[in-house]
Fold:
Amino acid sequence: MRDLVRRVDVGGLVRRIAAATPRDRDRAVDALRALAILGVVCGHWLVTALVADTGTVRGASPLQHMPGLVPVSWVFQTLAVFFLVGGQVGAQGYASARARGESYGHWLGIRMGRLFRPVAVVTVVWAVAAGVMLASGVDEGTVRALAKLVWSPLWFLLVFAALTAATPLVARLHPLWPLTVVLYVDLVRLGFDGPAALGWINVAAGWLVPYCLGAAWARGGLGDRRTGWMLLVGGAAATAGLVLFAGYPASMVGVPGSTLSNLDPPTLAAVTFGLAQCGAALLLLGRLRRALARPALGAVVALLNLSAMTVFLWHQTAMIVVTATALFLGGPLAGLHTVPDGSGWVLARLAWLPVFALALLVCRSAFGAYEQRGGGRSTVVRSGSPARTPESRHV
Structure:
């Protein structure tokens, strides 16, 4: 064991990361991104179930059977924070690139490469896996359920890529404009029974709200705590009003069988809830900065940021591998293969989370290099200026 500890040399790794991180870097931004990614991962692991029955595997959700778990979606649906940080980093990065004389095409190419290299890998791996499963006689419904778990979360990356590409156009757009678009779209499609297809306008407009907030943050427009409190209290009050009096679902993720989802496409309630999350994130900045003064914690955040895309892209695969392996070795097990309809399932699922995390670490070891490919010399965004350190590369 001592030899293993020496080989890993955790202390040396912490010191190297601390030395490579610029002193004026706002590590709290990295921490918010890490929290957003972990929120999505834990949320999916907690509200997604694979039920094995009659020779097939199908998807299910504990929220469908236990409405009392809805607050879980309030904690772990953290996409707005990811777009907030994305807007802040994107606006700063583009401004820094312009200051260095780099072209828009060069800046965009670097960012798109970091996004879509790992996406291409997971797509190829799962295309091959789906073909092998079908050829070996696995039920088509099972293959479809598994592939949907892996590929359906990728929609948000397409939205994020589109907003990133539009950064020069939207960097100075006031968040109230896209918020107004979401309001009128919901009013027409839900209040006046307008075409349901109108809702897809909100896929761009809804996530543009936190992205524009992030761009305003990059310009120094969200520096005081009063703004954070206004977003938190105002967003929470608006969301509560929409849920209690306007018929919006209380869950901030989709629930099978529901007539309306707050995410598919985003509703006004999802956007106001996101505003509250952004306010809470801004209020946390001071505490995060103080906590990240500890080199060990800063190293953990830096390492998670280096693997953020890998963690996001492979977390459902990790859950599927554990579920499939356990089904093959021991048959249906509570929390993995059973209907998520009671507290017993919840307790069993919580016990399986460390196993999912271990499987995800294996996936990270196998596929993390594709996210970091491109070399440690790639330009990264730090607080106000560029740096060239592999440990601080942004997604």
About this structure: Confidence is low (pLDDT under 50) at residues 1-7, 375-395. Strands lie at 49-53, 56-60, 380-381, 386-387. The two ends are 35 Å apart (CA to CA).
